[in-house]
Amino acid sequence: MIFAGPDDGPIRNTNFNRRVWAKALQNAGVPKIHFHDLRHTGNTLAANAGASIRDLMTRMGHSSTCAAMIYQHSTDERQREVAQKLNDLARGALDKPSGTQRARDEK
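Below the sequence we write its predicted structure tokens.
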């Protein structure tokens, strides 16, 4: 467990933000963010790493694809990766003769 409440028990949301989270951010020199932002960031990174919708649903405990789709953000970097992969596929296809060309060559 990373954070524990008084007497090492479970933490309660009512005092977690005030007593624990704000202090942890300050100690780490991190700007003020919501605790839930960590979940969002982690799952967005998982999606960018190739996690499928089903993978995200399992990680987050969601039963609907709508909830998992929230983490499917597009970034400039990801768009470049997709464009490069499409370019590679297109170049690979150009290196192979088409079905029409193969038929002509057989005559």
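The helical segments are 13-28, 35-48, 53-60, 65-69, 76-95, 99-106.
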